[in-house]
Amino acid sequence: MSDDPYRSAMLRLALEMDLALGMAEAPWGAPPVQQRGVSGDRPALAPDKISDRRVAPPPINRRSDAATQVAAPRSAPTTSPKVTAPSTVNVEDPMPIDFMRPKLSEPMPGPPADRAAALKQLAVVAEKDLQRFVNDIATRVVFGEGDPNAALMFVGEGPGAEEDKQGRPFVGRSGQLLDKMIQAMGLSREAVYIGNVAKLRAADRDPDTGRLKDRPPTDAEVKRGIAYLDEQIEIIAPKVIVTLGATALKYMIGRAENVTRVRGNWQTYRGIPLMPTYHPSFLLRAYTPENRAKVWDDLKKVMERLKS
């Protein structure tokens, strides 16, 4: 998958953010300090620069059809038709539920008696199965971590550079921000479970510099290990799931959606309430009071659901 769809999605979100009204800040304060050469997160952009970015209009397809062309009178001036460029880029595409996620149509089974033991056994199986995909980019399997009996589960898109280095999900700058968000909910990282739709790092190597640049995983990369995410959820049986970003949301509900439009609105994963919200990496790129307030509003709805 190229980086263009990701960039287009971010531009679309940025344009919609320009229309947002000011709101109170979320309680987790300033973003984590970036450490050079450590995190695999994409570099943060100043929020005031995002609104200056514009989406280029798509190319116009012109075709000649001899059967439908009509010659214009000589006296009539010939002018090119005025074309209005769309204000946003449509990056959505329907995805059949049974294409990637056949289990989405299946009911949730009952959890095992010993969830911790079941997760450990599943991790061993996943590690062995996915070893054939390990290479110089994805150097290890990042299975997931947390409380096997957690009531709340966070699902992201996939590991980055630091996650691949440590073998743990969300430990880079995005993970530091996620930790603050969890703490603001009155919970701890150890009390929730954190996983990803992809179990291996997705990145491309720059042919000139040789440096790796993280990107969203492709369908094929997600398909390698998403069945293990389904089994993780079956074992843990969380009361609520929070998806972080568009990629995680797409694969968890079986269709592509714009996070700006659906965040804050309850979805479902096999009968489990699912709350979509922005990925922490997006907040790091656009760390505004408006965006933080939206995420905090989503998390407050999750807290209310957990209490009920």
Can you walk through the features of this model?
The chain has 308 residues and is α/β, with parallel strands linked by helices. The chain has one domain: Uracil-DNA Glycosylase, subunit E. The chain is built from 12 helices and 8 strands. The strands form 2 sheets. It has a 6-stranded mixed β-sheet, sandwiched between helices. It has a two-stranded antiparallel ribbon with strand order 4-5. Helix 4 runs antiparallel to helix 8. The protein is globular and about 45 Å long. It starts with a helix and ends with a helix. About 23% of the residues have low confidence.
Strand content: 5-15%
Assigned CATH class: Alpha Beta
Calculate the mean pLDDT score and round it. 79
The order of strands across the largest sheet is 1-3-2-6-8-7
The count of domains is: 1
Distance between the termini: 41 Å
Please identify which CATH superfamily we are dealing with: Uracil-DNA glycosylase-like domain
- What does the overall shape look like? globular
The CATH topology annotation reads as Uracil-DNA Glycosylase, subunit E
How many strand elements? 8
Question: What key attributes describe this structure?
Answer:
308 residues; alpha/beta; Uracil-DNA Glycosylase, subunit E; 6-stranded mixed β-sheet; two-stranded antiparallel sheet; 10% strand; globular
